[in-house]
Every structure is written in structure tokens, then in C-alpha cells.
Write a structure and sequence with these properties.
Chain lengths: 363, 363
Amino acid sequence: MAEILTSLPAADGFRMPAEWEPHAGTWMIWPERPDNWRQGAAPAQDAFVAVASAIARFEPVTMLTSAGQWARARAALPANVRVVEASSDDSWCRDSGATFVTDAAGRVRAVNWRFNAWGGLYAPCDQDELIAAKMAEIEGTPRYDAPLVLEGGSIHVDGEGTVLTTEECLLNPNRNPSLTREEIERHLRDYLGASKVIWLGAGLVDDETSGHIDNLACFVRPGVVALTWCDDPADPQHAISVDAYERLSGRTDACGRGIEIVKLPLPGPLYRAPDEAIEDAAADNAYQRYAQERLGASYANFYLGNGFVLMPLLDPRTDEKARAILAGLFPEREVIGLPTREIVLGGGNIHCITQQQPAGKAG
Amino acid sequence: MAEILTSLPAADGFRMPAEWEPHAGTWMIWPERPDNWRQGAAPAQDAFVAVASAIARFEPVTMLTSAGQWARARAALPANVRVVEASSDDSWCRDSGATFVTDAAGRVRAVNWRFNAWGGLYAPCDQDELIAAKMAEIEGTPRYDAPLVLEGGSIHVDGEGTVLTTEECLLNPNRNPSLTREEIERHLRDYLGASKVIWLGAGLVDDETSGHIDNLACFVRPGVVALTWCDDPADPQHAISVDAYERLSGRTDACGRGIEIVKLPLPGPLYRAPDEAIEDAAADNAYQRYAQERLGASYANFYLGNGFVLMPLLDPRTDEKARAILAGLFPEREVIGLPTREIVLGGGNIHCITQQQPAGKAG
């Protein structure tokens, strides 16, 4: 039930499926900390309820919550969302949660990465560090404990052997200073069941995660990557996107395919309004959120589930263009847009607050 | 998933199965409160680990624990015990936990009774009050919210329509002062899918629960009740047992059978030693546990699971006699005895700290 395996997923025949493969369900964590979410987290909770409700139309959703918030979350969420107590330090299940892997027999296991709060954005993070193990425990999946500090938002996979990530994050000395690029690549191969790692450079401009891939680019199917794009040479995102484009253009994936790149528009630039700032947080470790700072917001942070694409609505000037692109990329899926500015204000977006559990049985 | 039904289990075709029917597993709650468990609850935790480990040889066990104790419980328990965070006020899953009911199609649902800490032994009890709902949520079982203060330890069923309980507990004004005996009987029928209630008088002497049936007597199969017996007329338990015997002797069960009574020996009397007392608890609501007080201990508080009987070992003068009686009653089951004095010191025994989930599927 709580078996901890000392072998390696790849050696055991396990791989991380692509997000578009069938899910058993989606995991989320209820937001509550008032030093990260304005107005006592009430507007963020509304946004999380909207996300959970949208997903629950298509697949089971489990919302993890502290003891103190359990009854509030239970009352706020639709009946078909499962609410389970599991304390956390914040609400980014993509990053603190388990990465699930599967094998050809349909068995599901959990990978429990080490977690240090995005290179030390806050402390303590002991409850977030336990979230992945608690998810495995609740589901009864055996678990691999990976010797690597990694958040799920820093990797994307195509399910066929390719990992997409950024140097800014995975090679950042705030994560795994004692590991070389080669050692990190080896861990990605071993724990994700992958054979090739494609490195982009920096992540989205003004992203506080040290450049998570999931705010910049993602696979939409094998051989096709959606990339946040910015035509304005005066915007620092321009050079980042051009660099990513150039790195992708010359590469092949694990199966030898060339990579087609689909450009996603960049919203904004968006800035934090004065009433969205949290500058007077009393806690020493609070991440200060200043008025007028640029927000790390991108359409690449959408989420794929069973039969749907759930995308953030961020800017009326670009929302429809982004939606049309995603609808074209996923003609077989229902594309749902939700306004997610309240989630952006806390440091992420829809993909950051969700974590898929692939279909299959614990084993 | 978290569906709350406003219908009645009996009307929906659901009943509480007898404890000897097949289980999907067993639920327990990790002990931790230092004002109820001596030495920071460490000896009690050892005893709970022994109980969970014994049961886990036969069926899945889920241990619920607070956030603060999760890692400690996880480390102390065998790998095949599932450890899930769920805060509580104390560790009596029989009483605060859900009562599960099933129907002929094998569907499983939860009954969530109201809970007031055994008539007000401590406050607050808000976390215990949520335990049943959290169990239902974790398992995805629909749930009935019963309008009755009731602990699982105050009822036994034969699975064929008969409920065994005590007047001392269920008619106690500290539970449901506004309800008549007839109204309480109706709720038992409605929520347990029963047709007949057999009332005994008082529970075990010096039992702090206001006389839970599960420390006095239980069904061992339809038509057969094991009853704690005391031959010594000077012991107050004598009159209680004689009264119970007389009430049972003249009755038939829901199916019209006469009731055979099997006498279980009374251990002790056992008394709390000075180093087992907790008299200096700082908390206002702590239940004081005085040296020299008589302990509420009985062999009737055994637990039946898939293929086993787990019985308390309480007194070398009576343990073997009790074991032989249980072995005779359950020839097809392995009878396991565990020393449970540390559990008795906190106010209960094996049956009080366990809650069966019958086999079947949430639905």
C-alpha cells in the first residue's frame, strides 16, 4: 500500500504518460495562505472552485485541504469533487504533488520528487514536501522517492520518450547544486521513463519559479510544441521566445521526428494593480507581491484532461486568438476558457494548480 | 462522490452488515492527545501499531492521523497500512467514524451520525464530528447524515435485522434528550436497515461511555450473544450482567429465533496504577484519569475481520478462558490475542479503535 520502491521506474518498465493520455482523475490543493493570496484567499478559492468544477465535468477531481479549511472547501465545491484532508504550505499541486507513471500493464505508481519551495521562495515547506507521499498513500500506489529537487511544472513529456525542460530551472543552483547536467538528465530518464531531454534556455519573463517550462511551452502531441511568442523586440520575452524557437527548430524528439512549433500569443504585458499587492505580509518568509510588478502570465499554462482543454483567459486582446489556436490544435476536445487572474496573482495558472493521475490501477 | 443523500438507508434497501461479514478493510485513528494518553501517547501508539499490524495481515487497514503525526505514524506502521491525514480529537474510530451500510447489489454507503464526545466528555469535538464525512469522502461513498447523536460502540447488529444496544447509553439525556425511545428506535431501524431493537439496561461497570454495548455484549452470529459475566454478587458488574442475561433470555431476534447466551469471563477487577494516572492535565476539558480507579475492561470488546478474531489480553487469570471461548465460537477464524492495557487506560479497547468497511463498491 505504502510500498517504497528502491528500483527505478524506467528499469521497471514505467514512464510518465503525456498529459493528453487518459486520466483516472485530477488532483488539486485548496489555497488558503493569506500572505500569498489576497483577501484571505477568498477570491483565489473562487477561482480554484471554478477550475475544479470545470474539470469535474469530465473526470474525477480530488481537492486536498488543511484540517482548518476542509469544511469550507467541502461546502464551496460541487458534490462530485472529492475533498480529502492533506495539509500543505501552498496550493500548487503540479509542483508539490506526485508525478504518476504507468507501465504497459496499466499499473500506476507515484514519483515523489524532493521539494524545496522553488529554490527557497519560502520556508518551511515540510507539508508540501509530504504531499506527493500522501497522494500515493491515499491511492495505494507504490512510490519511488527520487533524489532530485524537481517540481512537476518544470517538465513536460510527450509520453514517447521526450522530456522538455529549461536550463534556467533545472540547472539552477537553487535546486540541485551538486548535480551536473548529465546527472540531472539521467534522473529524468530514470524517473520519467524517457530517453531524450530537450533543453530550452530561460522560462517565461517574470515567472517566479526560476523558469518553469509549463509557463513557456508544452507538447500538444508528439512532434508538436506550443510556444509562448512575443513579436515586440523591446519586450524581454522576445529574446526568450526566439531562443526557445531556435533551440526547438534544430532538434528531433526521442522518436526522431522534427519538431513543429505553434506560436501562442503573449497576453499583456499584465501588471499587478495596487489592490492586488501583498506588501505588508507579516511573515518573514512571505513572498512579497508588489504593485506594478509584471505578472508571469501565459496561455501555455493550459491543462489537458479527458476530452477537454482548460485554458486561462488573461487578456481580452489576446484571449480569442489563443482560444482559436488551441481549438485548432485539439479539434477533438472541448476548449473551455476560465478567467484566472486571481491564480496568476498568486504565482501560477491552471496547469500549476492541477496534477493528472493517469488511468490505471495502483500496482 | 461526496453525495449527501436525504433518503433513508432502509428505504433505499441498505442495511448495516454484521461485523463477521466480509470486509473491504478496517479504519483506525492514530492516538496522540497527551491529556488522554500517558507519556505523550507513545505507549498507546505502540499498541495501535500492534492492532493495525495484526489486522493488516488479513485485510487493508487505513490509519487516519493529524498533519503533525502523519510522518511519525507512517514510519511506525507497516508498509501495507495506508496512512491518510484526517484530524481528530481522539482516536476512537468505532465511535466517531462512519457506520457503513450495504445493499443487495453490493453498493456501500456511509452513515454519518451526530457526535458529541460521549455525552460531553470533552470539547471541542469538531474534528471528531467530521471524521465520518471524511471517511466517506476518501472512499467516494454517498453519505446519509443521521439526525441522531450516536457512537458506533453503542450498537451491535446481527446483519439480519436485529440491533442490540443499552438504555444507559441510547436513552441517556446526554445524547438525544429531545427524542423518545420510540423515536430513537425508528432512527435505528431507518439508518441500520433493522427491524427489531433489543434493549439491555446498563453497560459495563465503570465504562466511561455511558454504557456502550460493545464493552458488555455482542452478537457472535445470528441468535448467539456473548455476554460479559461476573459471578461475584459483591461486584456491581454482577447485577448488570444478570439483568442483561434476563433481558436476553426472554427475547427473540428479528427473525424470530430465541437467543443463546455465551458467558465471557470478566477480567480483574483491574485498577489504574499510579504511573498510569493523568491527573494533572492542564487542559480544561481533559478527562481526568485517577490512580486506583477501576478500569472498564472486557473481552467482549474483540474485533472480527476477514478470517480472524482479534481479542484483548487483559488479565492472565482469565485470558486463556476467554480465548478458549472465542476459539470455540469462531472455529473457522484465527484467534489472535494482543495485550491492550494501554488502550484500556485511554478508555476503550480493540473494538472501540476499529471500524469495519464492508466489502462492496461505493455507490
